[in-house]
Amino acid sequence: MAALLVFMSSSVHALPVSLIGDTINLDFGQTGFGGFLNADAVISDPGVEFVIPLFPQLPVDIDANSISLSFNPGVAGQIGVPTTFFFSDFDNIITSVTLAAGNAADVAGIFFTDDTITLNMHNPLAWSDPTQTFVFDVTASVPMPVVPLPGSLPLSAGVLALGWAGMRKKRRKSAQS
Length: 177
Prior knowledge:
2 domains; six-stranded antiparallel sheet; five-stranded antiparallel sheet; 3 helices
């Protein structure tokens, strides 16, 4: 009975979802220079969601479950400092972000909360290959509502426990007589 109560009162479960159709914000900045882009886009596939002003060779493409940053020829020499890509306002809950392609040594950090992702990149001039594509796998989920226990279930369990205790007490008295 206890196992049934625990199972039925379990909290929030999550179902994986696609990022397609989500409207998000990208804030792109560089160490010492501030931001170059703060824009919103609706995620669609195929298609590039963001092109950064001054760096058109650096498209940011987001599909159903990943973010791709393509550092094409000419970008590394123009950037030359650590960069940060800050994605925010995701409609669903971000549960994981992992590097799927690209040199991990060139990524300074991957951070996420329920509705944000921050990708920090080292200085492209220090990369082993300044023209590479990074792909970050993103897992998002939508919370399922908590299903409350029916009010009669705990009451029934209590009545059953009292009845069992009473029967046990009665058996003990019978055994002693």
